[in-house]
Amino acid sequence: MSHRVIVPIGPYHPLQDEPEFFQLYVEGERVVDIDIHIGYNHRGIEKLAELNHYDQVAYLVERICGICSSSHPYAYVLAVEDILGGEKNIVPERALYIRTIVDELQRIHSHLLWLGLAGHFIGYNTVWMWAWRYREPVLDCFEIMTGNRNNYAMFKVGGVRRDIKDEDIPVLKKTLDEVAPALEMFRGAVMDDPVIQARLKGIGILTKQQSIDWGVLGPTARASGLNIDVRKDEPYGACDRIKWNVIVENAGDVFAKTVLRVLEMQESVSMIRQCIDKIPKGPVDADVKDIPPGDGLGRVEAPRGECLHYILSDGTNRPVRHKIRAPSFMNVASNKVACVGGTISDAAITLAAVDPCYCCTERLAVINKSDNKKIMSGWDLIKLSQEKTNKIKEELKSA
Amino acid sequence: MDIRERIKEGLGKKILEWKEHSARRIYFTVDSKDIVNTAEFLFKKLGLRFATASGMETLSGFEILYHFTLDKTGEYFTARIFIKGKENPEVDSLACLFPAAEWIEREMWELLGIRFLGHPNLKHLILTEEWPEGDYPLRHKNES
Fold first, then answer.
1. Contact of A74 with A103, CB cutoff 8 Å
2. Interface test with B, best of A81, A90, A233 (most B CBs within 10 A)
3. Which domain holds residue A259?
4. What total number of domains does chain B contain?
5. Which chain A residues are closer than 8 Å to B67 by Cβ?
6. Per the CB < 8 Å rule, is A42 touching B124?
């Protein structure tokens, strides 16, 4: 019988920036099972949403994640607009285009971020440097358009919070002109580089059936041959007013996911260009006053997949229940099959290939108000840490 | 045949109430005992994708909405079940049908205290292992 060893990765992940904990069960080099522990980023956002009024919740959900910080507020406003009769029926035309421009620009910056990290994970830091070098002008463009590099605060129920000024359009065009050749370069770099091919092909495979069973979403699903994309299936914003293609790959491995994301960025550039050409003049906000009782479901194709928000309204100014399902919640769980069977050296990039976002996955936590349970404050933790340091010092002295 | 007709025909009397909120949002209620059969029919026979489930506490017990979708048309079919009483809420698990339900059931169990019978791995997901038993954060008694 072979000897089974547990290799812990995390909670302080050596590569990824967010805390998560994978226990890999390995026999020799081979991963035979995996335990995924999450919960380190747990903040209580679903509960908080029930305590805030509809305008405040848009700001709150924006803070679920700094990378897909337009997807969550967008899905949320779509959910509320679903109660009101649907986005297309109440939101002014110009606002639809602005929503799509912001959403697609976000996809470019998020995929560039992932591409850079993926390069970093496989020890190919040149890719990392180059990808992030071109992410920078995208973020600058966001700052010029919205005032922020992340957390753009553009979305509100009934429209967008601010218009894109005419003088910002040339900046946006210039940014796209700068990024588009770089994307072509990345496409060549990923598709033609023998090192990347050798490192990424055939690892972390998720078959089509596994994708269906685990309910995976976004690029993770599309790389396994599932043609699902909310922008096509249930078009929101200006997605149905412009021409674009859903990119689907069939191999299901990490290489397919990488190629797919690069091609998707090129589609996004084309989508934004079309939006700039077609955007009409007019108001950007419908000035919604009251939210009637009812259920609303809103969904958006975030860079990682379908982001789903469910709102139950009782006619007051606060949601009764706000359920948030981020795409990583489904995608991270599928590592249970994608990782098993591979070698431990492939695990790092396989786990990263779904573009996991733990902030999104763990959006809810709790403040316990019953008196008999002690809650530690920040100061308590500092005290605890000092006590422990002193204890270690004492031990060292006596040794 | 239209997907709505197929669902109505396939589930028959199991559907207690059928509501079409808008063109792409359909909600229907089934008995909590029928949820496994319903989910099996929607997921395996009709090939709908399981998106997630939303659990919530109501005045008389609990309510779970199982969101399924047909990606081709963008329609969302939400199966709603009610669990009466707050003492020992339980319902059959869907995780044995498709692993996509595994995490969300663990989350509903730890946050709302709904027990999922037959779940292969019903342990804490986002709360710590040391979380006090019987303390369910999303229940309203935690509000002051």
1. yes
2. A233
3. 45-327
4. 1
5. 297, 308, 310
6. no
Q: Which of B56, B127, B132 sits opposite A373 (nearest CB)?
A: B132
**In this structure, what CATH number is given to the domain that contains residue B38?**
3.30.460.80
ipTM of the complex: 0.94
A283-312: average pLDDT: 94
Domain count, chain A: 1
Q: Does the residue A339 lie in any domain?
A: no
Measured between CB atoms, does A373 come within 8 Å of chain B? Answer: yes
Per residue in B99-114, pLDDT (tens digit) is 999 999 999 999 999 9
Tell whether A336 is covered by a domain. Answer: no
How far apart, in whole angstroms, are the C-alpha atoms of residue B121 and residue B113?
A: 15
A231 near B CB under 8 A: no
The model carries a pTM of 0.89
Rounded to whole angstroms, how far apart are CA atoms A41 and B126?
9
Q: Which are the contacts of A41, defined by CB distance < 8 A and separation ≥ 6?
A: A18, A19, A358, A359, A361, A362
Q: Output the CA–CA distances (angstroms, integers) from residue A333 to A314, B103, B132, in the order listed.
A: 33, 7, 25
Biggest CA-to-CA distance, chain A: 77
- In the three-class reduction of DSSP (H, G, I as helix; E, B as strand; rest coil), residue B130 is classed as coil
In a domain, A390, yes or no: no
Residue A309 counted as domain residue: yes
Quote the minimal CA–CA distance from B33 to chain A in Å: 23
User: Domain span at residue B83?
Assistant: 3-142
Contact list, A214 vs chain B (CB under 8 Å)? 98-100
Distance between CA A112 and CA A132 in Å, rounded? 7
A155: CATH: 1.10.645.10
Contacts of A286 (CB under 8 A, 6+ apart): A90, A91, A92, A95, A158, A159
- pLDDT tens digits, A39-82: 888 888 888 899 999 999 999 999 988 888 899 999 999 999 99
